[in-house]
Amino acid sequence: MKQLEPLYAKVAQRVQAPVCVVLGPPWPVAQLVRAINLPEVVCVQMDLHQAERLQDCLREAGTTASVETVADVWDLPPRFATVIFPAAAHSERELKLDVVEQAYHILRPGGTFIALSEYERDQLFARWLKKVYGRYGETPASPEGTAIFATKTDAGRPRRRHEVTFHARIGEGPSVHIVSRPGTFSYGRFDEGSRAMLEIADIRPGDRVLDLGCGNGAVGCLAGTRVGPTGSVTFIDSNLRSVALAQQNAQINATPQPRFVAASRLQGLEPASFDVILANPPYYALTEITRLFISGAKPLLAPGGRYYLVTKMPTAVVPMIFQTFGDCTVHENRGYSVITAIRPASERKHS
Q1: In this structure, are strands 137-138 and 146-151 parallel, antiparallel, or unpaired?
Q2: How far is 78 from 1, CA to CA, in rounded Å?
Q3: Looking at domain 164-342, which of 3.40.50.720, 3.30.1490.20, 3.30.565.10, 3.40.50.150 is its CATH number?
């Protein structure tokens, strides 16, 4: 993302405390907080991992702000005089609209919403702000981007939830009903990589399954249709919106013995407690995240437990899995590589 300070300088006179900075990449946000230089700045993230990185960046930038992690922006109280949204050009369009809608509800009357867009000319935000706030203003187009701003003039707008529902099934198996929301993996559809993995995965009645990086929980809910009433499914993700969706979807689909964990480093999971782990890491993930999905998963498998990971980058991932498990098998399916590994049954339970 571009440096935000030059664009922020064009609207700085409109900013009053308390300030809420919603989402945005950690380092640019830390630089923005330093430029704001006001008391009572709150930075909001949906992802625990991103929040931890932001804390580190704030320290490196020599500035302070509180960092909160929420599933929804409107989980915060309506006390802010200014809400600033640093909107990267590559950000999900539906998430941008969702932030515009939800930010309205954490502004106090008379408060100002400001979107800092990387686009030299941004017509999307102008249209959205006019719809939500009635009137808007914007800075002249420039290489730094465009700042679009609006004022909350009343408190009577009802909350509008942005979500898409879909159904998913594997082969002739039962269908599951999934609710998805912006900012989570595979918004509005069942991911083909997840489908490829589940077509390969051996999931048996009574299995204890871990949906690693669960997103909206579609993979875990489909796995739950195979394990039966004696099995269980645990959903884990660092994104709080994802965990909330997984909980809702597991309830809708009567997933057996569900458990939900929000963690950035697989905290809260017991060693050797799963028979099957299903992992679909993001393709853009940093190496540390991919390695966590692999090396962090092995101790969680019971001896003889089965590990499945789907990827489009097998040359990068297979060596990590081979190094961790000692051996693996690669299945090509639907244009994806589904990598299977087994924790040796001879390994001690808590090794």
Answers
A1: antiparallel
A2: 28
A3: 3.40.50.150
What pLDDT does 284 receive?
A: 59
Residue with tokens 């912006």: 182
What's the chain's Rg over C-alpha atoms? 22
Paired strand residues for 210: 234, 277
Residue 52 burial by CB count (10 A; 0-12/13-18/19+): exposed, middle or buried?
middle
Q: Is the dihedral of CA 177, 179, 180, 185 positive or negative?
A: negative
Q: Report pLDDT for 350.
A: 44
> What distance in Å separates the CA atoms of residue 185 and residue 235, rounded to the nearest whole number?
14
Residues 6+ apart with CB under 8 A from 157: 104, 105, 132
In the chain, the amino acid numbered 169 is R
At 351 the pLDDT is 43
> Which pLDDT score, from 0 to 100, does residue 349 have?
47
Contact of 256 with 224, CB cutoff 8 Å: yes
Tell me how many helices (H) and strands (E) the chain has: 10, 16
Structure tokens at 174: 């039962």
Class of the CATH-defined domain 5-151: alpha beta
Give whole-number Cα distances, 163 to 18, 205, 235, 318, in Å: 30, 32, 20, 35
Contact 341, 327 (CB under 8 A): yes
* Spans of the chain, pLDDT less than 50: 349-351
Model-wide pTM > 0.90: yes
From CA 260, how far away is CA 243, in angstroms rounded? 7
Which residues are CB-contacts of 129 (< 8 A; sequence separation ≥ 6)? 100, 113, 115, 136, 148, 149, 150
